[in-house]
Amino acid sequence: MDIVFNMPGICACGQPSAEPKSYMRPKVARMCGECRTAYWRAKDRKRRGKPPIRDLMWQPDCSCGAKLVRTSSRPKRLCDDCKVKTQEQRLGYGICLACNGPRPTTPGRRFCESCSAQLAKARNRRKNVKRRAARMRGAAIELERYTTQEIAERDNWTCHLCKRKVTKRQLPHAHPRSATIDHLVPVSAGGDDVRANVALAHWSCNAARSDTGAAQLRLMG
Question: Mean of the pLDDT values across residues 44-53?
């Protein structure tokens, strides 16, 4: 960027020079604020191998292709429509990983309501398949009616794997800290679905243990 200085204290554009710094060269110290910003920007773009920008009011387009008009010292990043979409996503809507539709941005939620219901049905079907497979191997599984609330109150809202408290709030099923029922002897290994064979656990602890581990030792106590 070639700038010719004629008078001390006056920039080449005619504006008074900005406050100089001790580390600046005389060429830069005589520039005004706008010319100094443009000089450093052009030098930085040259260092990164990009073409220099001669226009001080340079403004890139929005990611959607809309033209933006710069009105301040900082360039704009989004158009009005993209700002509204971004605010909606921050206030409570995201993208479902299954159908790419809107979903609540609650921590731990990755799917919308309909996809969550379908996945829950699929999980129940897989669980029933394991039970049927265990029955076919000759293991007679006993069933007993119970709820997660009853097991949680019995275990004093404590995870039997990590020994930490489980929150009483209603969290999504896939939330790492949500309350789940863990079978001490897995159903796939012939364990009964009764109160004596279940315990409270975090979702993350239950998923990490899967159908392995030494939780069966609790039955001997």
Answer: 66
DSSP structure class, residue 193: B
The correct CATH number of 142-220 out of 1.10.30, 3.30.750, 3.30.300, 3.10.28 is 1.10.30
CB 189 within 8 A of CB 211: yes
What CA–CA distance (Å, rounded) separates 15 from 13? Answer: 6
> Rounded to an integer, what distance in angstroms lies between the CA atom of residue 23 and that of residue 73?
24
- The sign of the dihedral angle between the CA atoms of 42, 48, 50, 51 is positive
- Specify burial of residue 60 (Cβ count, 10 A radius: 0-12, 13-18, 19+): exposed
The distance from CA 28 to its chain's CA centroid, rounded to whole angstroms, is 44
Query: What's the helix, strand, coil split of the chain in %, to 5?
Result: 35, 10, 55
108: left (phi over 0), alpha (psi -120 to 50) or beta: left
Q: Where are the domains of the chain?
A: 1-57, 59-91, 142-220
Among 24-38, 156-170, 207-221, which stretch is predicted with the lowest mean pLDDT?
A: 207-221
| pLDDT of 114 higher than 80 | yes
pTM score > 0.70 for this model? no
